[in-house]
């Protein structure tokens, strides 16, 4: 069991063996690393995590030249130690088994059943370490008719219903299904995996029992439907896409201004009247067709175009300043340059810089977790491929320099 920093962080007493790649698994293990766990990321020698090459953009070194570290990889791998081991070889498998004996958690996202042929499946490893927490992440889970299919976030967003709810309405310009702008199913799977692992660890600490966690992207996407899923189950009617509008509230959508877009969320009649009064359209405030929200929903196709013309008479900031002063819920639609210059984002320190062995330093998005007694600690930047192989084998498995050299010669590490 890992003991470094165990009194300074929430999870400093834990060691996690991370056999995942791409996003869902690494997002989970980055959470655990932020909370203090020692996370050892196992990668293929010479190639490593697929996302190391998913660019551009790539991190630049201190001379301004691009490195082989893609920004995609950097987003999900800080705080980890990186070791390169060929698990397709018997020697590599033996190393992983020895590391498992010294670990609390193993997390992997290989295809269903693939690790069994290497002797690294839960049934095998749990006999060697009964208190092991073993988490598998796949597209469709360990059973069911789709278990052997490869699962990718984009496909799951479609299969799991998200794209039926996202995008402009059919019949409108640009109408049709849309995926989310980030791999939201992967990210949520990583978050669910974090919760499941912490729950399993709590059970282990009470009983001494390890357990197996089976997480599927499709399951997560269906669960993420939340109120929309409940709406369907209650009514047996599939919700339709509404783009940036709301099916039950008007005005509750984006509007173009003189220099960009804003979000208006007028949740009651008084907020609506304040909105159009600020826009100097007193006639819309007093029009009986728009007097109540049900009437505005009924006459949406008449009202919204009038509001769009009105909103173009002022700049984004002029609207926001006036609406905020009047208590009308609103907000900008920021690009990422605006996000990271926002005074609230700056005040919350949502951008960090970590020392990096090649670039000197690397900018990263911070964790949103705020704990008063055991705050998140950023131990190191996302590691380079195999950066800690020798140190981990020497310090955890007590291998000698000669044994490590022999493994290198055979290209096991």
UniProtKB/TrEMBL annotation:
GO terms for molecular function: CoA-transferase activity. Coiled coil: none annotated. It comes from the Bacteria. InterPro entries: CoA-transferase_III_domain, CoA-Trfase_fam_III, CoA-Trfase_III_dom3_sf, CoA-Trfase_III_dom_1_sf. Keywords: Transferase. The keyword Transferase applies. PANTHER family: SUCCINATE--HYDROXYMETHYLGLUTARATE COA-TRANSFERASE. This is CoA transferase. It comes from Undibacterium fentianense. The lineage of its organism: Bacteria, Pseudomonadati, Pseudomonadota, Betaproteobacteria, Burkholderiales.
């Amino acid at each position: 069991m890992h003991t470094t920093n165990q009194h300074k962080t929430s999870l400093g007493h834990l060691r996690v063996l991370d056999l995942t790649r791409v996003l869902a698994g690494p997002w989970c293990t980055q959470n655990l690393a932020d909370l203090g766990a020692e996370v050892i990321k196992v990668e293929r020698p010479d190639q490593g995590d697929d996302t190391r090459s998913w660019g551009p953009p790539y991190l630049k070194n201190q001379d301004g030249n691009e490195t082989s570290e893609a920004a995609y990889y950097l987003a999900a791998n800080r705080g980890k130690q990186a070791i390169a081991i060929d698990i397709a070889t018997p020697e590599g498998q033996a190393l992983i088994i020895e590391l498992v004996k010294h670990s609390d958690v193993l997390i992997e996202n290989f295809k269903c059943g693939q690790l069994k042929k290497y002797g690294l499946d839960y049934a095998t490893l749990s006999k060697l370490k009964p208190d092991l927490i073993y988490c598998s992440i796949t597209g469709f889970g360990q059973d069911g008719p789709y278990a052997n299919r490869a699962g990718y976030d984009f496909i799951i967003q479609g299969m799991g219903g998200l794209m039926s709810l996202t995008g402009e309405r059919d019949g409108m310009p640009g109408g049709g299904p849309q995926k989310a702008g980030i791999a939201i199913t992967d990210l949520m799977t990583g978050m669910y995996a974090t919760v499941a692992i912490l729950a399993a660890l709590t059970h282990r600490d009470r009983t001494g029992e390890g357990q197996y966690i089976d997480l599927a992207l499709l399951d997560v996407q269906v669960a993420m439907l939340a109120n929309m899923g409940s709406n369907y189950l209650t009514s047996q009617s599939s919700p339709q896409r509404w783009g940036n509008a709301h099916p039950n509230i008007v005005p509750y959508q984006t509007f173009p201004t003189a220099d960009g877009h804003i979000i208006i969320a007028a949740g009651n009649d008084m907020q609506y009247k304040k909105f159009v009064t600020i826009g100097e359209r007193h006639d819309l405030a007093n029009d009986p067709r728009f007097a109540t929200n049900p009437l505005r929903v009924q006459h949406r196709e008449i009202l919204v175009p009038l509001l769009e013309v009105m909103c173009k008479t002022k700049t984004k900031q002029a609207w926001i300043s006036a609406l905020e002063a009047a208590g009308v819920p609103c907000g900008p639609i920021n690009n990422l340059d605006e996000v990271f210059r926002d005074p609230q984002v700056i005040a919350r320190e949502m951008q960090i810089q970590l020392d990096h062995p090649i670039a000197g330093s690397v900018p990263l998005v911070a964790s949103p977790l705020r704990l008063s007694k055991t705050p998140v600690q950023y131990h190191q930047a996302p590691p380079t491929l195999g950066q800690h192989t020798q140190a981990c084998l020497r310090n955890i498995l007590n291998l000698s320099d000669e044994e490590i050299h022999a493994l290198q010669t055979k290209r096991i590490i």
